[in-house]
Design the sequence.
């Protein structure tokens, strides 16, 4: 029926009407083949965010196929509206970690509090209050889940917000090194995504992540703490020079050098701003 509907647009030799295009997409979203439904959902990221098709897109968060639901989240991520936000919050309740975590990353990129709370719940230890955001079973599944690199990089570009410092790298190669070909664990990706967030609870969660059993999580925490550009964190990173895993030790060493450089620049600026008369008085 989908093929015949598309063929009809051509054989009649007339311009496609909105009604015909809508019908074609509706048939595709109702198809028995999940790949067809997925392609229709993906295509809708090009369309208007209003009308019956968008309403149907939100309803497809209930689709029985995981890949279709994940595609719905991706398409909703193109539309920053109250309706899309509400739908994505609902998607975080999906029983499949890949879907719920994808929704959390989009909401985090939009600076929605629910997205940040979800990431903290994944990263934080069992004793943390934020862990109550998910059930223990759901949280454990999210932590073990792997996120495709492309999806992760999209979320990072949308919401990272790291402030570049002249003369210092942005850590892109370090971040990419943490991302394996098969994906990055939920905990490690949460540590990377939350790196630019300055809230006290986020800082504490990153510090706790330095003790994680997963070396990639520890490396991600070192990476994010280094990019906070706060020399006061040197005391936190120094013990990581003794970590059992080389990627963690090397990032700690580079991070400490970064923070030392920032500290030295701050001292130089302070010295340059000191009036000459004050310096002379000190010598006397």
Sequence:
């Amino acid at each position: 029926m989908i093929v015949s509907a598309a063929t009809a647009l051509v054989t009649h030799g007339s311009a496609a009407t909105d009604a015909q295009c809508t019908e074609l997409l509706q048939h595709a979203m109702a198809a028995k083949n999940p790949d067809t439904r997925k392609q229709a959902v993906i295509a809708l990221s090009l369309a208007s965010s209003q009308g019956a098709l968008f309403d149907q897109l939100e309803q497809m968060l209930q689709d029985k196929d995981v890949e279709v639901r994940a595609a719905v989240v991706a398409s909703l991520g193109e539309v920053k509206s109250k309706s899309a936000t509400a739908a994505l919050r609902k998607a975080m309740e999906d029983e499949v970690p890949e879907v719920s975590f994808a929704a959390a990353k989009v909401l985090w990129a939009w600076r929605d509090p629910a997205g940040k709370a979800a990431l903290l719940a994944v990263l934080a230890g069992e004793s943390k209050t934020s862990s109550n955001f998910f059930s223990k079973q759901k949280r454990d599944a999210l932590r073990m889940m792997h996120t495709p690199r492309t999806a992760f990089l999209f979320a990072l570009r949308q919401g990272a917000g790291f402030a570049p410092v002249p003369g210092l790298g942005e850590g892109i190669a370090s971040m990419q090194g943490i991302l394996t070909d098969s994906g990055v664990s939920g905990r490690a990706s949460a540590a990377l995504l939350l790196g630019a967030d300055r809230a006290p609870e986020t800082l504490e969660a990153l510090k706790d992540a330095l003790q994680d059993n997963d070396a990639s999580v520890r490396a991600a925490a070192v990476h994010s703490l280094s990019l906070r550009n706060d020399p006061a964190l040197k005391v936190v990173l120094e013990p990581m020079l003794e970590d059992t895993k080389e990627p963690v030790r090397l990032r700690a060493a580079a991070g400490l050098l970064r923070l030392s450089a920032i500290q030295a620049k701050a001292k130089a600026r302070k010295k340059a701003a000191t009036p000459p008369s004050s310096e002379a008085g000190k010598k006397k």
Summary: The two ends are 94 Å apart (CA to CA). The chain has a mean pLDDT of 79.
